[in-house]
């Protein structure tokens, strides 16, 4: 007996008719719940490695098959306009409200389900329903085929889909998306090159029009933000940050967090972004009204010399005087020192920074970070004033040394005492 009710089956009801649930649907859902309950009761710790692998593979296939059924059902719900009952504008909004999903998640499944109902995508629908494809693979193939120009012959379109289905046995969704953009080069080279150029131009145009950056200070010493930039710029930025975050540039202590665990890549990339901004050459910053985009830090002489003082930035936020002193060694800040009456005593310039030639000389002399036990190379170090500029220290080789970012922070941290030894190495001791 078929599990699919016919349109004449008495248990089948028309849309909008409030009738008792179909016994067939009830039975199928009970069986599905039973199987999932039984799986949930399996003691995974008692399974062999082979059984764990089989169970994981089976669950992966089952999730694809269930996703295919979700798509089928939501595609059936769409023309019935079931969301009209609650005034939903779209089926996926109605479904999101019933299921607790976000509109975006429900929309993605709905769009895929509707696409798979089209005849051209029947092979993709079958493979997803059979558990051969993963959901994102199916979506990548459907998107690639639908993105082909409208003038492409249906036979070429079908050949493109068949080719992508074959490639799906060896490639994940991200690769399929990349390949899909050039699938015409494989199935129809005569039109592929022209199409790829049009696609790339359209992508680049959208990317340029959607560039965006937002930054918000939370008032607790942190700034949060997000951005959208063209892919090639993102690749360049990531390459720069990965170079700064390269473990080879850091000691083991720098690669571990406050609890002694290894820092995740996202933390190291965040620290790399901080270093990227702090060490950006001040002479390369653009100028507005004759002044480069430089941060001005204002403090009194007492604050400048104090161990636990604060300094005022020109945007109204504050930082510790130690942080200001550290930045003054390398970053392009302008320290403005006031007397007790608020009059300017000194307005240091960025010429207090070590020059490129001095940096090279320090690298040749020190070889890298001068903290004992640190192996950070010269390219990963900051130039530090032994005798701080805040106390009249000169920017020359005799008063300079290389310190990695971590040891540079310690040098300006009032909680630590730094000792310079006869071999020009330094060590730190936490003050008691």
Key features?
432 residues, alpha+beta, 4 domains, 5-stranded mixed sheet, two-stranded antiparallel ribbon, 17 helices, disordered N terminus
Task: Explain the overall architecture.
With 432 residues, this protein is α+β, with helices and mostly antiparallel strands. It has 17 helices and 13 strands. A hairpin with a 5-residue loop joins strand 1 and strand 2 (223-228). The longest helix is centred in the first third of the chain and has 32 residues, at 49-80. The protein is elongated, with a radius of gyration of 32 Å.
Q: Report strand %.
A: 5-15%
Helix/strand order: HHHHHHHHHHEEHHHEEEHEEHEEHEEHEE
User: How many strand elements?
Assistant: 13
Gyration radius, rounded: 32 Å
Tally of helical segments: 17
Please indicate the count of domains. Answer: 4
Portion of residues in helices? 40-55%
Please tell me what the overall shape is.
elongated
The helix-and-strand class reads alpha+beta
Strand order of the largest sheet: 7-6-5-8-9
List the uncertain runs: 1-5, 12-17, 287-294, 344-351
Mean pLDDT: 80
Distance between the termini: 83 Å
Largest sheet: 5 strands, mixed
């Amino acid at each position: 007996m078929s599990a699919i009710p016919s349109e004449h089956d008495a248990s089948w009801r028309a849309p909008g008719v409030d009738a008792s649930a179909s016994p067939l649907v009830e039975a199928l859902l009970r069986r599905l719940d039973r199987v999932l309950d039984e799986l949930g009761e399996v003691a995974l710790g008692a399974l062999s490695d082979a059984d764990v692998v089989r169970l994981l593979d089976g669950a992966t296939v089952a999730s694809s098959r269930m996703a295919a059924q979700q798509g089928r059902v939501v595609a059936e719900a769409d023309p019935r306009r079931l969301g009209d009952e609650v005034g939903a504008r779209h089926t996926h909004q109605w479904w999101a409200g019933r299921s607790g999903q976000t509109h975006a998640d429900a929309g993605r499944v709905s769009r895929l389900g509707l696409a798979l109902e089209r005849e051209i995508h029947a092979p993709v629908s079958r493979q997803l329903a059979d558990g051969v494809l993963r959901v994102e693979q199916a979506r990548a193939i459907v998107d690639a085929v639908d993105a082909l120009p409208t003038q492409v012959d249906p036979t070429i379109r079908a050949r493109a889909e068949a080719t992508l289905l074959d490639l799906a046995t060896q490639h994940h969704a991200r690769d399929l998306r990349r390949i899909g953009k050039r699938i015409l080069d494989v199935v129809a080279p005569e039109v592929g090159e022209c199409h790829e150029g049009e696609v790339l131009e359209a992508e680049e145009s959208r990317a340029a029009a959607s560039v965006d950056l937002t930054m918000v200070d939370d008032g607790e010493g942190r700034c949060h933000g997000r951005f959208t930039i063209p892919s090639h710029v993102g690749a360049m930025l990531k390459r720069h940050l990965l170079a700064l975050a390269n473990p080879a540039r850091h000691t083991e202590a720098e690669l571990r967090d406050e609890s002694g665990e290894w820092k995740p890549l996202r933390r190291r990339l965040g620290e790399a972004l901080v270093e990227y901004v702090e060490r950006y050459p001040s002479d390369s910053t653009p100028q507005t009204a004759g002044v480069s985009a430089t941060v001005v830090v204002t403090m009194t002489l007492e604050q400048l010399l104090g161990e636990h003082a604060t300094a005022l930035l020109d945007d109204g936020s504050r930082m510790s005087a130690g942080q200001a002193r550290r930045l003054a060694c390398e970053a392009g800040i302008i320290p403005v020192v006031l007397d007790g009456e608020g009059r300017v005593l000194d307005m240091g310039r960025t010429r207090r920074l070590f020059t490129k030639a001095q940096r090279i000389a320090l690298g040749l002399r020190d070889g890298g970070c001068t903290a004992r036990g640190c192996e950070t190379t010269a390219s990963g170090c900051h130039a530090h004033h032994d005798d701080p500029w805040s106390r009249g220290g000169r920017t020359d080789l005799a008063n300079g040394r290389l310190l990695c970012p971590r040891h540079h922070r310690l040098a300006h941290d009032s909680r630590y005492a730094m000792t310079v030894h006869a071999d020009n190495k330094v060590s730190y001791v936490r003050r008691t």
